[in-house]
């Protein structure tokens, strides 16, 4: 078996095994990088390790550390409660509050499954309390999380932008972010009206809705164990949500004010001064930990170490794949189709279909390098293509087989869970069929970027 064939076979095995078994894809990737690199390519260990993305490691650790502190000291509870209070009896606004909060959480650095894990229980409780379609409520939470997921200071955005920079092709991080946000917003609008939005627009709190118990989530209650796509279940993947919304009129604590200031400093430093996102996030987190060491002493345990392992392993393997020449060969094969637009569409579908069952982060790390050879030919706008790939690989996370979809289904009332699952499955099939094509039509075919 040649080096290129072995490297491609390893990639296929990695996705299949991590999808079927609860094994961290990153750990598999490191093992396969060692096996393929040494046996089939004759690489030394230092040559294999050279592909490890140190910059992404710092970004992932810094962002998830800061977010863990924000969750632990109640800042996230405060933000969610403040947003809900803005509803003022307008039932139709509740799903959009959840969409907006989810988008803001991922935009400032929360991984999408973490944002959904925090919001899905309270969102579905509100859906039950006010007679909102649980499918619509769950989908708006997920599409909100995905919409904000490609901001320049987010996990998805940071990974995508650094992969693009490493690949040597032109990129525009704000175009990718806004394209994802607008695409998911448009999908959310369609979902809102398709699943009862018009009825909600005519409804007020207390009119036709039986108020139930106050939404309860459990910061002091049990943690919601979360198996992130391709990460495997680990203590680092346990998301602890707030036990209740912050009571009206409760004062903001000093720690929460400082955390909000830290999040603002992160955004300003990264966007206005082009500072390294990971290093700024770690610095802010350390300052907060120094101010309240006892309160934040367990925050390090909440860093998404499984996500760090996933990204580090997959990108290290992709580096081995590139050294084998397999990516160049595949890219030339796609380019050889003779129809660049068709090749672009095929890559979007590859990203969408695989991501519905595997990690979106891993899929982004694999598909963007595949697009590089034919993007370098100049027949397809690289920024539009990257944005289309980003959307295609994440919009399908509504699948009940992905973490986001599974979280919503799991938080549905027991008597509705089977129905919600079936409707999520039907919707995800529709998104897998239509999502990549729509992203391609909007961003690649016009050639705007």
UniProtKB/TrEMBL annotation:
Pfam family, one: MatC_N
Keyword Lyase: no
Keywords: Membrane, Transmembrane, Transmembrane helix
Protein's UniProt keywords contain Membrane: yes
InterPro entries documented for this protein: MatC_N
Domain Dicarboxylate carrier MatC N-terminal intervals: 1-149
Entry's transmembrane regions: 6-36, 48-70, 90-123, 135-155, 175-195, 260-291, 303-320, 341-366, 424-445
Tree of life domain: Bacteria
Name assigned to this protein: Dicarboxylate carrier MatC N-terminal domain-containing protein
Source organism per UniProt: Roseomonas mucosa
